[in-house]
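## retry 2 of 3
previous attempt timed out at serialization; input unchanged, resubmitting
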Amino acid sequence: MYIANLNGVYDAIFNLGFNCQGVYYTKAHGLSCGNGPTDWFGVHELSKLVRLIDNRYQGYMELEDLKIIGTDKQYYAVFNEKSNVASYHDFLQGYTLEQSYGQFRAKIDRRINRFYKKLAVSNYALFIRASFFQDEVNYLEQLVNVLSKYCKGNFDVVFIELNENVNEIVDVGTNINKVCYLQFPRGANWLGCEAAWNYLLNRITLV
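## retry succeeded, writing output
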């Protein structure tokens, strides 16, 4: 499947990490249907994310699994080793994890509920996963199989490899049903290559 094969018109769009690029640009293009469970997190391992989705995010970001690994502006950087997920925008410095966790947990649970409710009624959904790691291609078929369990209607997956060796979009394609595989220039910072994201998202409509 290639970019030209994307349906283009969707009633649900969710980002699946690994960083904030996808959610940043989809929101900028007016393509948000509400934050999903992984938006604004560092979700570093697709294989673990597939298991989380399959298990309806059971055990995701539980308090006992969280540890502070640094700071980011006014927030703590908090890591969950079990799922290889990091939070950079949720736990304000000056408060313990225990003090902040109730509000954080309520937000996560709202996002999880929104995700599965939306998939249960969507006619055509789009999922976007960006990553530095080419070998995540090996887990895309598993991702499709798991999403198929929860999506009422059809869906597409766009996998974006953020590749330091390309200077423009490469439409790699796959023989995996429902999956489009693109390579984007990695860019100089967390925002990546704006032109590449615009090229993709200008083809997308949220209804």
